[in-house]
Specification:
Length: about 130
């Protein structure tokens, strides 16, 4: 049975995701059963620099974004939502969503309704 876990994001290393056609960002994987004793969520922090983006995609799992720093639009099913500090965006499972090029630095907490980040199967809009 999992036990309570407490993380300081500073104790997790940044990892980089970069694809010339689909964007780039840094992320800190804080919670995932592949690296932590957890069984219900996969979560972490994403960081975008000015001009970074994350191509529109979908996955079966619901997801939340919680703004930590900066402001930027997030597209969900063709509609733009402004993510800023202390706002939460719920993204229903199966919805196409992504982050257009950001105007400045953007940091947000993300969480998936699954136990492992590696289980997320992405379909990008250009593949659908």
């Amino acid at each position: 049975m999992p036990r309570p876990l407490l993380f300081d994001p500073k104790d997790c290393a940044d990892e980089e995701w970069s694809d010339p056609n689909r964007g780039s960002y840094l992320y800190r994987q804080m919670l995932s059963s592949s690296v932590t004793d957890s069984d219900s969520f996969a979560a972490g922090i994403m960081t975008f620099s000015a001009g970074d983006q994350w191509a529109v995609h979908r996955h079966p799992e619901a997801e939340i974004y919680f703004g930590l720093e900066g402001e930027a639009d997030v597209e969900v099913d063709g509609r733009l939502y402004r993510l800023k500090p202390e706002t939460l965006l719920f993204i229903p499972g199966g919805s196409f969503h992504g982050v257009p090029p950001t105007p400045g630095r953007l940091r947000f907490f993300y969480a998936f309704a699954t136990d492992r980040l590696e289980n997320i199967s992405y379909t990008f809009r250009d593949e659908a």
